[in-house]
Hints:
Layout (H helix, E strand, L loop, with lengths): L2 H5 L2 H18 L7 H7 L11 E7 L7 H10 L5 E5 H6 L1 H9 L3 E6 L10 H19 L5 E2 L8 H9 L3 E2 L4 E2 L9 H11 L1 E2 L2 E5 L10 H17 L3 E3 L17 E2 L22
Parallel strand pairs: 1-2, 1-8, 1-9, 2-3, 4-5, 6-8
Antiparallel strand pairs: 7-10
Helix pairs in contact: 7-8, 9-10
Amino acid sequence: MTAGDRTRPAAHRLPAALTALALGAHVLPSGTWLPSVRRTLFPALTGLGRGDHVALTFDDGPDPLSTPLFLDALDRSSARATFFVLGESLVRYPHIGRDIVSRGHELGVHGWTHNRPWLASFARDTRELVRTAEAVGEAAGTAPRWYRPPYGILTAGRWAAAARAELRPVLWSAWGRDWTADATAASVLDTVRRDLRGGGTVLLHDTDRVAAPGCWRATLAMLPALVQGLRAAGLSVGPLAEHGIAGGGDGGGRETPYDCRGGARRVGCRGGHGTGNGA
C-alpha cells in the first residue's frame, strides 16, 4: 500500500478493490487453456466422447488459400470434421463456409476475431458470439452447437456469453502444435499421437491466419496419415456432432488407447501409443 493509499478514505479504496476482485473472477477461469487445469477442474471441456471415436477439429478459418485444400484432402480420405470459424472471415468468404457444410462437415463458433479477452466485457463477448453464431447459422442452415474460444481462453465473460448464445464450450484433448514456424508433417503427427486416445478431440488448424506463415502445409501433409492410422487402430474419425458429448450423448468418459497396431505402422507409430489426455 502506498502513502497515498494510507491517507485515502477507505470508502474511496473500496471501488478499486471491487474492480480487482471482478477482474480476478473474470480472468481466473481462463486457465482452461492449460492441460492440467482443463483435465482436473474442467474435464467436460476436453471434448471427451465415445471411446471408439476421435473428433477431428480445425480452427481459425475459413481461408480461401488453404481451407479448400483441407476439404479436398478430407474428401480423399472420406473423413469429416468440425471447423471452428471466425465470424469476420466467414462473412468475407461465405462461399467457403457453405462449401464446408456441403461436403458434410460441421461449423462451430471460434469467435468474431482471434483476440485475447483480458478486459471483462460481457456485453461485447455476447454481442460478438451471437453475431458469429448468426453468420454460422446462415452458412450452415442450422444453428451451431459448439464454441471454442481463441487460444482456449475461456474467461468468465465468454463462458456466460456462450450460455446466452446457447453454445456449448469445447476445447481439446490433443493438439499438433501446428502453428509454429518449425512444424513439419512428422512433428505434427508425432505431437498429436503423443496425447491422443480414443474418445479424444484433436485440435489442428486449416490456416496460418494467426500463426507462422505457411505452417498449415505441415498439417495438410500429415492429415491422410493421421486418418489412416486412427482407422488402423480401430477408431472412427468424424465431427463433434458424432462424438457423443452433446447433451444426452453417450460419451461417458470412456477412453481407448490409440495403440497404433497393425497397418498404423505406416504413419510412423514405432510401436508406441498415446498415453495422455491433454495438450
